[in-house]
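Run folding on both entries below.
>entry_1
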Amino acid sequence: MEWFWAILSLVAGIILVAKGGDYFVDAASWMAKAAGIPTFIVGATIVSIATTLPEIIVSVMAAIEDKNEMAIGNAVGSVTANTAMIMAIAFIFMKITITLKDYLLQCIMLIASGIVLLLGCLNGALSTWAAIILITIFIIHMIVNVRLAKKHNAASKEKEAEVPKDKKTVIIYIVKFFGGAAGIVIGSRFLVDGGSDFARLLEVPERIIAVTVVAIGTSIPELVTTLTAVKKKEYGLSVGNIVGANIIDLSLILPLCSLVSGDNLPVSVQGAQIDIPVCLGVTVLAIVPLLIRRKASKVQGCLMLAAYVTYLIFTL
């Protein structure tokens, strides 16, 4: 019976987090536009943070409960899943080309976040200096996002679309906002508890469940975005969304976890020597050839996917 409740908790958590995140992003976007905030700011700040809210809530909630392996495993594992699984799918099924000026700084910040995290955790905990640098990278990332979005908005001369503000619409989006937020929080609770129970029943460290089941579960919004982009042939959408989400995951979540834990966030030996290096490795494998060639290849996508499958096999 314990197995049933543990699996049910995980499945319910994934569904609630995914659907809650979808509703929350829609509602937050509408509210910002209805309040007169320019579309480019909405997309560059509110939506980009909201799409990573599942990872943020799950990891912070785990850190509050001293489940540090769950907190770190989810944050780092989500980036690994986003890159080596979801971005790999985009590389295999989409003809992706990039312009260096639009992606170079963001990609540098992503790789820099991974390097800082790796070096900052060598002593068994996220050091203060690393947390400060990561938060600085996050702030720079948000500023760059706004400037790029503003530049694009001006170049395309887009007019702000008038959003509906009738009573029925207002009620719908208020319900979506609070319902989505509740879904993320409750779903995160189910994920953390279900993940811990699952790990206990399997007699494996929480880290293993965190970097696999929980990390993939909280990456569902990015997976859905990528599959939608594949279907609609929006070639630039998927990679840009994943790079942005990964920067936020690495530069914001673990410093937040360290803050709520009240001390330097402990990092397990496996996390410092396996999970974080693998995360950085697949990021370099995805980003460096993309920047050099200005385009992705199916071979590159297959190599990334193979690396992820290998990592999962050895982790399990």
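>entry_2
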Amino acid sequence: MTQPAYDVLAIGNAIVDVMAPCADALIEELGMTRGGMALIDTERAHRLYEAMGPAREISGGSAANTLAGLAALGAKCAFIGQVAQDQLGEVFAHDIRAGGITFDTAARAGDPPTARCLIFVSPDGQRTMNTFLGASQFLPESALDLDLIASAGVLYLEGYLWDPEEPRAAMRRAIAAARGAGRKVAFTLSDAFVIARHGDDFRALIEAGEIDILFANEHELAALTGIDDFHAGITHLGGKVPTVVVTRSEKGAYAIDGGEHAEVPAEPVAKVVDTTGAGDLFAAGFLFGHGRGRPLAECLKLGAVCAAEVISHYGARPEADLKALTRTA
């Protein structure tokens, strides 16, 4: 097997985040579930945008955020995701390339427009996300560069993108290409609602041995396994997936790798400003360490440090020097 040209190639939603602070009362008034993520249509997107206060536009998308963190740590990364030929599509493409990430997926002509996520940030930093998937849900198999996928040490897949039919087929094809090249496949479950819709698919992938690294939070772990007890649930998955990583918010994170167990506490943060991207950046730190053969506990520590940085400010992309922050991790 040849040496990988890229550390990680990710396939995910190409989204621009539109973020604004808000009072908890507005969350209730707009009929949103505080701290949740809902898929919305064009009409709902217009209504929520009109209700937002002054907002910031920041390129996002779960897998793209993870790559931004990896690239900031020094990894070589590539991304496959669908944007439209519009202003937000140009914003997304510029931002991801400016981060040193290879992005060559051709923009899609016509409607729907580029995806956007309207994020309402509560005073305690909790984020309530409303996602209009737009063009991102029309990523076709023809957009895949199979040689590029085969050239990456890890193929990282975003659970959110499993929902639409067209990109789901593309991701299955990408898994086959990665495994055919002897590469690892990492998968993030993304949200409990995705598991409610596609849990059977995910469990089938696990049983078939097609996932090497699985990322989840403790709620997603319970939804996937049907086991409420945390330690019983992660031990159950640890017998099926080579590496299982579960984040637990303020309780830290836990992982099993080849039968080895490790746990780290959450990193202290002076003030939680915005939790958007915490799991994405945790995955970045963990994958960076894992790809370099670091001990399991050290990989978790790297993830915790990266997650702490991103929740200390608005936006799901790192702002501080992650290399400096993780140097002593």
